Amino acid sequence: MRALPVGDDALLVEVSSGEEAQALHAEFLQRRTEGSLSVREIVPAARTVLLDGLADPARLASELTTAEVPPAPPRAREAVEVPVRYDGPDLAEVAAHWGVTPHEVARIHAGTEFSVAFCGFAPGFGYLTGLPPRYDVPRRATPRTAVPAGAVALAGPYTGVYPRSSPGGWQLIGTTDTVLWDHTRVPAALLSPGTRVRFVPVGNA
Amino acid sequence: MSDRALSVVHAGALTTVQDLGRPGHAHLGVPRSGALDGPAARLVNRLVGNAPEAAVLETTLSGCAVRPRSTVTVAVGGAPCHVTVDGRPVAWGAPVRVPAGALLEVGRAMSGVRSYVAVSGGITVEPVLGSRSTDLLSGLGPPPLTDGAVLPLGRPAGLHARVDVAPQPAPPAELVLRVTLGPRDDWFTPEAVRAFTAHVFSVSPASNRIGLRTEGPALERALTGELPSEGVVLGAVQVPPDGRPVVFLADHPTTGGYPVIAVVRAADLPAAAQAVPGTPVRFVAVRRR
């Protein structure tokens, strides 16, 4: 584990895998709940956890440098179920990458339990991991200028669901009517780091 | 709508509602947003007797014109500009009474970029995640002002402004940004790190609330390849593939995949928000506190 200073009051804690980043994120959340970590933002990402707004980053950095990455936390509450029609325009291309039929893509994807590794790109957009590395897919060579809200998409090791229409370069495999982000709802984001997710095929799948 | 409201007569190039922003939601991909020149926004609120968290208007270069439906006190600060009420010049940087139905015109910035307009009672559009700020990256908060829009106003807090007029820093002729290097300065060649603090860059016209973009020498990377997405902070100096540093301002994305060579001291960011395109920019490395 490396703790890189960021400005005057933040630390970027770097570990060697996405699983370790998720475990570390859970540990920091626990410490904040207990009151032993005072911090404004805890932002997990692919291989790092950012701690922003620390009173004494140097002291925490020296403590973390000698610390072990904590074990993965016990599984979070029930998985959130997201109904999906596997009807995305890139389904055939993803199937070709995986070397299976489009129907098999749906079966494999819906048979996987995902977990939200981190959020970013847009409010409520989660980067979900869970598929084995052999199912990594590249981004599209040419991003779409508009991906519709509710599009279920793949890029690299991640699955994501577009909370609203936006440009995007991910491979679209399906569509959901589930509302990912609603700022009038509590919580506004359906998916937050650590949430477990299952995609449930509906309709033509 | 009640008479506690403000009609927008001319929205100007880009005028938004801003308060202290919505920090604390970065893990959901929500930018902090908020007034780019925080000290100016706080000062104009104080001048009209508002609490610091009251929402104000932030203009961009061209000013705006509004008409209150009831008599209010306003104060304009930040970028210096002409201020008139029904065509008559009034003070900038001081509380001004605007009668019901009168036209308040906030002129084009004479220097600097963003003027701030506080109205007694504050602008009380519906908050989103605890803030009324317009976030231009994610679209949260109220849309930018449009001609004919009507903004609700709160009841005056009844606080007595303890200042009648207050000095404000002049927008910078040269922008000097103190930085601490890292966390990803090791992704750049030693020559690039030296060039970063030795060369004079200039403020790009493509700058906005998301980032202060610069023009100047391209900073060459020592490491190619992709950096896995990681959390970024306000003031982070990210270097995209074109090699030109971008200083992240309030509407910055919460995670990013381009290396951050350094982070600008928070105290220097308000000046960055007031630097017009073409302003020379120097990055000065300082020791971490």
TrEMBL record, chain A:
Q: Name one Pfam family in it.
A: CT_C_D
- The stretch of residues making up the signal peptide is none
Matches recorded under InterPro entries: CT_C_D, Cyclophilin-like_dom_sf, PxpB
Keyword Nucleotide-binding among record annotations: yes
Which keywords does the record carry?
A: ATP-binding, Hydrolase, Nucleotide-binding
Q: Which residues form the Carboxyltransferase domain?
A: 1-191
One GO MF term, please?
ATP binding
- What protein am I looking at? Allophanate hydrolase
Could you tell me which species this protein originates from? Streptomyces regalis
Per the UniProt record, the lineage of the source organism begins with: Bacteria, Bacillati, Actinomycetota, Actinomycetes, Kitasatosporales
TrEMBL record, chain B:
* Species, as recorded: Streptomyces regalis
Keyword set includes DNA damage: no
List keywords of the entry alphabetically: ATP-binding, Hydrolase, Nucleotide-binding
The GO terms this record gives for MF are:
ATP binding; hydrolase activity
Q: Name one Pfam family in it.
A: CT_A_B
Q: Which residues form the Carboxyltransferase domain?
A: 27-289
What name appears for this protein in its UniProt entry? Allophanate hydrolase
What domain of life does the native source organism fall in? Bacteria
